[in-house]
Amino acid sequence: MASAVAAVIRPVGALAEKGVTHDIAIRRFKFVPARLEVRPGDVIRWTNFDLAPHTATADDGGFDTGTMKKGQSRDLMVTDGLSSTYHCAFHPHMKARIDLS
């Protein structure tokens, strides 16, 4: 599973400078905002503010941030076809959506 994550979750380089960075806070067992509209070249950054560990895991398996402990962040470069619903692997009631515009 780690190799699949490495293919999608990676350091953000020069392409990110052309896009927008969208911050998603994980607070009180919710993704805030719960719905996000993005474009290819944008970056999504999840930051965990809860004491509990969380993930942002695509329902279709297309991406997974891996475990984020309190204070940790993960970035994802937006590519064509990314639109997806996602959840926390530890807390499946935590759900959100990414829409590609």
Number of domains: 1
Q: Which ranges are low-confidence, i.e. pLDDT below 50, for 5 or more consecutive residues?
A: 1-8
Q: Supply the helix-strand structural class.
A: mainly beta
* CATH topology type: Immunoglobulin-like
Number of helices: 1
Number of strands: 8
Radius of gyration: 12 Å
CATH superfamily label:
Cupredoxins -  blue copper proteins
Largest sheet, order of strands side by side?
A: 2-1-4-6
Gap between N and C termini, in Å? Answer: 29 Å
Order of helices and strands: HEEEEEEEE
Q: What is the percentage of strand-forming residues?
A: 35-45%
**Percent range of helical residues:** under 10%
The shape is: globular
Average pLDDT across residues?
88
CATH architecture: Sandwich
CATH class bucket = Mainly Beta
Q: For the report, how would you describe the main beta sheet? A: 4 strands, mixed
Features:
single chain, Immunoglobulin-like, disordered N terminus, 4-stranded mixed sheet, mainly beta
Structure explained in plain terms:
7% of the residues lie in helices and 37% in strands. It has one helix and eight strands, in the order αββββββββ. The protein starts with a helix and ends with a strand. The protein has one domain: Cupredoxins -  blue copper proteins (Immunoglobulin-like, Sandwich), CATH 2.60.40. The protein is mainly β and 101 residues long.
